[in-house]
Design brief:
The protein has one helix at 2-17; strands at 32-43, 53-60, 67-72, 81-82, 88-92, 96-104, 111-119, 123-127, 136-140, 145-149. It is mainly β and 155 residues long. It has a single domain (24-149), classed as AOC barrel-like, CATH 2.40.350. Strands 1, 2, 3, 8, 9 and 10 form a six-stranded antiparallel beta sheet that branches. Strands 4-5-6-7 form a four-stranded antiparallel beta sheet, with no helix packed on it. The protein is elongated, with a radius of gyration of 23 Å. This is AA1-like domain-containing protein. Residues 1-17 form the signal peptide. Keywords: Signal.
């Protein structure tokens, strides 16, 4: 009987040292996203030192953290720009922002893409030295934060 107790005690110690496995039934597909700090810069004529730029952070309702997104040069290119997390992409048309995410869907873990659009109203003001970008126009979302819905599977 004494050896059975030691065996149970040893088994208990080993099982508590093993990592716990989280069941897949708690995974979540993204349905909404939030854009924070959306800002654009358009250089003034003659400002060749600083290109046009767009930058912001984005998060989704899965609470996986914020992803940084930016593009310089042709900021309204028809090609999608990749964010700091390569599963997140965006396009900026000058009035609408399209964001996309690639993720493993629940519960079957098939890789899929989802996209959503938001119309952005921006407050713009002149940028002059000593502003980091020099002469031009800087625009920002007035509220600092805008939310949207992932609503389709293609750009």
């Amino acid at each position: 009987m004494h050896s059975t107790g030691l065996f149970v005690l040893a088994l208990s110690a080993i099982s508590s040292a093993l990592p716990t496995i989280t069941p897949r039934n708690n995974c979540k597909n993204p349905s909404t996203f939030t854009v924070n700090g959306f800002t654009t810069f358009t250089p003034a004529e003659g400002n060749t030192e600083h290109p046009a730029a767009v930058f912001f952070t984005i998060s989704d309702d899965r609470n996986l953290g914020r992803v940084s997104c930016s593009r310089t040069g042709d900021i309204t290119s028809k090609d999608a720009a990749t964010c700091s997390d390569e599963t997140t992409v965006f396009k900026w048309t000058g009035g609408a922002l399209t964001v996309g995410e690639t993720y493993d869907s629940c519960p079957d873990l098939v890789t899929v893409q989802t996209f959503g659009d938001i119309q952005l109203s921006l407050n713009c003001y002149p940028s002059v030295p000593p502003m980091p970008n020099g002469y031009g126009t800087q625009c920002q979302t007035p509220t600092g934060q805008v939310s949207g819905l992932f609503s389709r599977s293609q750009f």
